[in-house]
User: Which sequence fits this backbone?
């Protein structure tokens, strides 16, 4: 199950030429010194957004905060399972997460 999600995640990130996948066992993306997406050990995808956008997407997508290793990842939205069926739509969310971290102070 998780291996399939990692394969899909690789396809998803390949649709986004401005950044690349990192992490050998825990796939993630980062830019400007800030991580903005991650696949957790359950194979769930979390994407980081601004506070206002998080609240909007949690309402619109009927989802919640993303958790990894039992901890709530502040700023991350758990992307619903059904979005895996539309990698182009999911890529738009991922690009939005990238755009957000590029507005943050570099680490």
Assistant:
């Amino acid at each position: 199950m998780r291996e399939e999600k990692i394969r899909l995640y690789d396809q998803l990130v390949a649709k986004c030429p401005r950044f690349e996948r990192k992490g050998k066992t825990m796939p993630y993306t980062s830019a400007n010194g800030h991580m903005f997406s991650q696949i957790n050990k359950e194979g769930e995808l979390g994407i980081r957004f601004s506070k206002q956008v998080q609240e909007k997407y949690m309402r619109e997508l009927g989802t919640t905060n993303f958790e990894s290793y039992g901890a709530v990842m502040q700023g991350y939205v758990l992307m619903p399972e059904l979005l895996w069926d539309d990698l182009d739509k999911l890529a738009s969310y991922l690009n939005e997460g990238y755009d957000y971290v590029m507005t943050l102070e570099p680490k």
